[in-house]
Amino acid sequence: MKSYFCAQHDLVAATIQAGHWPTAADPALRAHVESCPSCSDLVLVAQTLRQARTEYAQSARLASPGILWWRAQVRRRNSALESVSRPVAVAEGVALLILLVAVIAFAAWQHDQVAAWLGTVFGPLSNIAQIPGALMVGLGTLLVFGGFAVYLLLAKE
Amino acid sequence: MTWDNVITQANVATAEAIAEPPMDEEAFTAFYERTARQVWAYLARVSGNATLADDLLQESYVRFLGAAAPWRHGEAACRSYLFRIATNLLRDHWRRQHPTPLEDVPETALPVFTSRDSDRIDSQSLVGPAMARMKPRERQLLWLAYAEGCNHREIAAITGLKTPSIRLLLFRARRKMARLLRQRTLALRKQA
């Protein structure tokens, strides 16, 4: 396997990062860099990027830290409110579901009375009593759970 | 789950969320002034877009304040954490713009850093044209290693790469960058 890495690499890198290159660097290390292609690349790239970093950093136009602080606070509070309201929304949904199930169960159990009552309230629909109970329960379930799904979607929005 | 549990959890969440963050405003301001220019330079250089760097810089600090930043572990840890947030934002931005993974993008498809004072800077330092021909991952690695002075472990933490692979990736990127810098220098000398 070809060896890519020079043994002096870390020392050269540390010297550059410490800002000692080239004036305060060991002469032997400088001589090595002149003869080593890998370390020569390292010096060229590291020095160029260090210089570029200083120049780019000066051209940055920074927002006020106060504005960022305020934005972070607003976001934290919104997140807190959301986390508090989430369990309440879940409890609301569960309660509504239980209520709907109870209504369906009651309608199925007291099918004849419910149908008769509906017939007195809605005259033209008095023949509703002739609809089979199972079909009534199925339609009711579909209607109720469909409404519940719509409610959940709207609540999410 | 009982109502008592729900209410207790809600109260705990409220208390945690509304409680003051571990870093106060004064400490944040000082930290921001020490680090923001470096983070901006990193974002601008890797993205190739100064305006995008402005936006991502602000979002990075807002997320830094909103998250459980490792303030108690010292400034170096916070700085590393901040660079990681910035890197993730860059990656998310790139994913929204391009379905291709960051590593597979050809150099020619990347934006060249052109805005504000960058033309003057690039012409002075040669870095712009060379970096424009590097892949985003190569730009990240080179900038973190040599402009920011991060070690391989820190680079791995920031970029999500594995520490052992950093050395080889850096070697390749460095060799490519050095070749581009030398070519650019020769071209400028010929023009002169």
Description:
Chain A is mostly helical and 157 residues long. Chain A folds into two domains: 9-59, no CATH class; 83-155. Helix content of chain A is 76%, strand content 0%. Chain A has helices at residues 9-17, 27-35, 37-58, 65-109, 111-121, 133-156. The radius of gyration of chain A is 38 Å and the shape is rod-shaped. The two termini of chain A are 60 Å apart. By secondary structure, chain B is mainly α. Chain B has nine helices and no strands. Chain B has helices spanning 3-18, 25-47, 50-66, 75-97, 118-125, 127-132, 136-147, 152-159, 163-191. The chains are: A mainly alpha (157), B mainly alpha (192).
Distinct helical segment count of chain A? 6
Radius of gyration of chain B: 20 Å
Order of helices and strands of chain A: HHHHHH
The number of distinct structural domains of chain A comes to 2
Number of strands of chain B: 0
Mean pLDDT metric of chain B: 79
Q: Roughly what fraction of the amino acids of chain B lie in strands?
A: under 5%
* Global shape of chain B: elongated
CA distance, first residue to last residue of chain A: 60 Å
Q: What structural category arises from helix and sheet content of chain B?
A: mainly alpha
Strand content of chain A: under 5%
Distance between the termini of chain B: 78 Å
Q: Main β-sheet of chain A, in a few words? A: none
